[in-house]
Amino acid sequence: MPRIAMQVVELCRDEETTVNQLAHLISQDPSLVMKLLQTVNSSGFGAGRSITTVEAAAKMMGLRSIQTLSLAFCLSNAMTDQCGDVFDMDAYWRRCVYAASAAQETAKLTGCCDPQEAFTAGLLEDIGVLAMAMTIGGPYMQISKVAGKNHSALDRLERKQLQVSHAVVGAMLAQNWKLGPMIVNSLRYHHEPENAPAEWRNHVWCAAVGSIGADVLLPDQVAMAATAKWFEAMKTAFGLDRDKANLVLTAADAHGRAIAGNFNLSPTPKRDVAQILTDANARLLELAMANEANARQLESEKQALHLQATRDKLTGLPNRHAFDTFLDEQLAMNAPFSMILIDLDKFKGVNDTFGHVAGDRVLESQGKLMTSIVPEDALAARYGGEEFAVILPNTDVIDAARLAEKIRTARAAQAVDIDAEAPLNVTLSAGIAGRNPGDPATAAEFIHLADRALYAAKESGRNTIRMTRPAAA
To answer: Where do the GGDEF domain residues begin and end (predicted)?
Structure first.
């Protein structure tokens, strides 16, 4: 650390230090005096009158703010000389300046904390980045390169690969320099303001939104994602609408450009903040539309996979798994329902005589027939092989028998084209079981009842229906 900076730190470690003592020390460095006065007289600080002495500046800003600002200027000069060849100091300090300006303008508008304190916290919130770059060197530079312009990604990569973040390192430095709990907590939690101690949460939120504001305002930044994050943070932390959040950004941009030269930063052209936000919103809209299209596609694919998993490919009817699920649901509701089990008569003979292609035609025909007859609130399924099943919610065995008879007569009346000399006449047999509330049958027992009725229909000569239901409990 530069000698003058060390002296500032040492002086402020003494709780008896006065503003005049600090001003006297700073006055020994003309370059530092000039930068302090230029900054304090900038529009962002709203002095209202010309500040011409360090003493006046210190009295206006406070001991802590002058101390922090002096440290920042000293570090800016020293680190540029030491690390300028391996670390982009211009980008680093430009980001600090915009973060500080955005934090300060937020504090002004919301009144959540002292604007000067918010500025100094924002200015130093990334001091840990400098410390890690200097002490770790190459490995840290690689992490920074991978993160690129994404500051949140930098924080995550630091934690993952180094088990410590620049926020933690910066807070440790601030504590060692006795910069006060406001700055220590702002540095420590500016990437996770919701976890900050309640006493300092407003200050931390100012630093946090300042960091996001810098992402929006920096040249060559991809402001799109940061813009959405900015509006969300300003609403979450301070309840500000988009118009007020825009005002903060516009003022922060102007203030940041005004004081950039004090950190040896080349001037940047005035930016149209409204256009930045408009472009970002337009891009966000494009992304939202693309995401919506992707969501629809994913939902369509999900439904297709669900149908594939629950549908019988040949007949198009729900499969055995879907039947079992629906039956369990009906049993769980303890409401009345009926079941029809259907078996195509002498189906094995169709396969043996005409081949399996003809047999498939018969199954397909049966699927279409049941789809056209069975009510929408019921489930018609392929149970397995040549067997089909129908579950009818809130239906007694008498009405179920009527539907079964309708299916049976429709089957007998519709011959199936199997590409033979003549269409094939097919019949079916059906067994019906009914269940009333309180009936004790399990799914297996209930299926057995319907199956027993089906067996009775076949024993009666086929092409007929029979019904049964369990006794009440």
So the answer is: 335-470
